[in-house]
């Protein structure tokens, strides 16, 4: 544990000085603001009707109220949250190979498990920060545009679901980290994230009963945004999800410790 604090500090310093970190913060804030502006257009359909594209997008919103906005943000965290956490994980683990500094990193007097654990800790905090920033910017924008139908009860229920789904999505960075490490770069893990996002959507549309057996579908099952066609999560859903997360973490640790990093 004596080397954990310096390892975390080093990873945090690398993260703070990277352009990717700053861009990700600005991007998620921007997305939150844009979702609020989309609700504003939904409140004023005469403005959206000037553009067929905007009119088409606003037609999918669940009403021009806070309840509809909360539903939109839940869908956003389930999709963008998964993609965003996957991309930042791909970058944090894949950059060591793409920048060709993996040998220098492994030569440091720090255990490889400590390096991986420090990356996981920073990644978890980074992903949570992105989701919080998007949430705050969206809620502030919704307040500024004067969305109707505010309810403290609805807000508390939404925040609870948002936090649970955000954490469930974030923990799925574990298998992505393994793919990034084994793939020694960015492209394979990003493709992995996109593939499983598509598979999740495909299962919900075509085979909703199979969603309980698909770990990446658990956040959506817990949130309830999939609607009445989707089943409730079962014990086997949590078991498979936990197995995937644990296997991803263990696989990443073992890869960094024993694999040939030439």
Task: Give a written overview of the molecule.
This protein is mainly α. It has one domain. It is 77% helix and 0% strand. The protein has 12 helices and no strands. α7 runs antiparallel to α8. The longest helix has 33 residues. The chain is globular, with a radius of gyration of 20 Å. It starts with a helix and ends with a helix. About 3% of the residues have low confidence.
Estimated share of beta-strand residues? under 5%
- Measured between the Cα atoms of the first and last residue, the distance is 28 Å
User: Unreliable runs, pLDDT <50, ≥5 residues?
Assistant: 52-59
Average of the residue pLDDT scores: 84
Number of helices: 12
Shape: globular
Helix/strand/pairing category? mainly alpha
CA radius of gyration is: 20 Å
Helix content: over 70%
Count of folded domains: 1
The biggest sheet amounts to:
none
Number of strands: 0
Order of helices and strands: HHHHHHHHHHHH
Q: Could you list some keywords that capture this structure?
A:
77% helix
Task: Give a topology summary.
Layout: H1 4-16, H2 19-43, H3 45-48, H4 52-58, H5 66-98, H6 102-106, H7 112-144, H8 152-171, H9 173-183, H10 187-206, H11 218-223, H12 235-258
Helix pairs in contact: 1-7, 2-4, 2-5, 2-7, 5-7, 5-8, 5-9, 5-10, 7-8, 7-12, 9-10, 9-12
